[in-house]
Amino acid sequence: MIYIAPRPKKATLCPMKLRLDLLKQLTVKDVVEEAAANQHRYKAEPTFSKVGIGHLSPQSIEDSAREAERSMALTGKLTKRLRKTGKAGGKKS
């Protein structure tokens, strides 16, 4: 006989703080730099047919590590900009 445990009636949600105050400090240059950093993963050749658009290759462990470093550096840069603009007392979401 197999026992199947009943499903819980409640789901557990883990809230995540979104730093919308930092998002307002983001510039086009920041976005372009991040896009350029991921450009090496884009493969222009079609995957399954002769007609089509390219695809994004899977992310390697090294890519993940570099992305985490860039993310932390960007967060630091945006925090610095926020302090410089004098709006550091803003509302964090």
Distance between the termini: 50 Å
| Oligomeric state of the chains in view | single chain
Count every helix, treating DSSP H or I runs of 4 or more residues as helices: 3
Query: What can be said about the biggest beta sheet?
Result: 2 strands, antiparallel
Mean pLDDT: 79
- Poorly predicted residue ranges: none
Structural class: mainly alpha
Proportion in β-strands: under 5%
Choose one word for the global shape.
flat
Computed over alpha carbons, the radius of gyration is 21 Å
| SS elements, strand count | 2
User: N-to-C SSE series?
Assistant: HHEEH
User: Going across the major beta sheet, what is the strand order?
Assistant: 1-2
Structural notes for this entry:
- There is one protein chain.
- The chain has helices at residues 20-23, 28-37, 61-85, and strands at residues 42-43, 55-56.
- The chain has 93 residues and is mainly α.
- Strands 1-2 form a two-stranded antiparallel sheet.
Which helices and strands appear, and what pairs or packs with what?
Layout: H1 20-23, H2 28-37, E1 42-43, E2 55-56, H3 61-85
Antiparallel strand pairs: 1-2
Give a brief outline of the structure.
The protein is mostly helical. Helices cover 42% and strands 4% of the residues.
